[in-house]
Amino acid sequence: MDSLAGSTESYYDEADSRRKRTRLIIALVLIALALAATWYAFSSSKDGAAGAGGAAGGAGAAAMPSITVMVPGRVSVQSTISTNGTIAARREMPVGIAGEGGQVVRVLVEPGQWVGAGQPLAIIDRSVQTQQAASLAASIRVAQADADLAQAELTRAEALVSRGFISKADMDRKRATRDAANARVRVAQAQYAEAQARNGRLNIVAPAAGLVLTRGVEPGQIVGAGSGVLFRMARGGEMELLAQMAEADLQRVRVGTRATITPVGSNLNVEGQVWQVSPVINPDTRQGMVRIAVPYSAALRPGGFADARLISGTDEAPLLPESAVQSGPEGNYVLIVDNKDTIQRRAIKVGTVTDDGVSIASGLTGQEKVVVLAGAFLNVGDKVKPVIQKSSQ
């Protein structure tokens, strides 16, 4: 019985000892795993700090974006000045009453019609003036008849004077009578010619060939010297653009400078040239007037508005696509890639904008690597991989 109890107690002691050993082994394994994990983490952080350069060359290099850049160089660019202004007749001719006036019988032209020099624009009633002219014509015939009679009497008297029937005093009187009659003929003729000239000025006629712009008279209207302007014409149909330009731009414009005029609301381009540059500057606006002559076109209407582009010369400047030029609160700028492949910002001044691109007036020499696309997604200091794009110029 005692032996059985002892063996049982020995069995339980041995089982308890095995459990303790198992727990000790598990604890040692966990401690070993924890130490291994700590060592691995320490080694990884150390390798990461020591091998940052290598990482940049590996995974970091793969993360650097490829950016398209171009070296624009310097190309020949036309220097242009953009402005706008009002269209007007280059030589406007106001037409009014030249004669004594009267009632308008007919108006022969409409605005937009071409007329020749001396062509009637409106007809004035001349019934009274015609009768006056007829009366003066009759007075010429009366005076001429008196002159013929005086001449006949003088001729007969000259035949009798040699016989002593007529004294020299009578002869002098007959000559005076003949001369007076001839003078009355000339007076009557002058009065008739004056009447004819007055009647010829009754009608309203074009002073020169050109385009009728406005009409301010209707049939039945009574017109006279105080009626003012009845028609307005553009001599030869020539037009001009009156453009106000800044003082600095005015210095670059000369007589003969070529210009392209585009009326508002139209795609038409009309070629012209500067024919007058204002010799004075408005002290309030610091602007001066430039007058650009343009040939006639149905799209050019006096009083209308138009844009103009003046070609003031040719410059050598970098030329960039519009996508390369950025704008900000401080003005225009571009992004360039320096020698370390780092993004830098460069302030610029934009020159002429053409269909080929944007010329850069200042800020670039033309030898920089300028970012062409994706500039809005880059920041100063970013590392990039530049891909050179050849300039199309």
UniProtKB/TrEMBL annotation:
A GO cellular component entry from the record: efflux pump complex
Family matches, as Gene3D superfamilies: 2.40.30.170, 2.40.420.20, 2.40.50.100, Helix hairpin bin
Signal peptide interval: none
Residue ranges occupied by any YbhG-like alpha-helical hairpin domain in the UniProt entry: 129-205
Pfam families reported in the protein's UniProt record: Beta-barrel_RND_2, HH_YBHG, RND-MFP_C
Keywords in alphabetical order: Coiled coil, Membrane, Transmembrane, Transmembrane helix
Parts forming coiled coils: 140-198
Keyword Coiled coil annotated: yes
Example GO molecular function: efflux transmembrane transporter activity
Residue ranges constituting the CusB-like beta-barrel domain according to the UniProt record: 243-312
InterPro entries: Beta-barrel_RND_2, HH_YbhG-like, MdtA-like_C, RND_pump_MFP
Regions crossing the membrane: 24-42
Multidrug resistance protein MdtA-like C-terminal permuted SH3 domain location: 319-372
Recorded family membership: Belongs to the membrane fusion protein (MFP) (TC 8.A.1) family.
Family annotation (NCBIfam families): RND_mfp
Name the UniProt record assigns to this protein: Efflux transporter periplasmic adaptor subunit
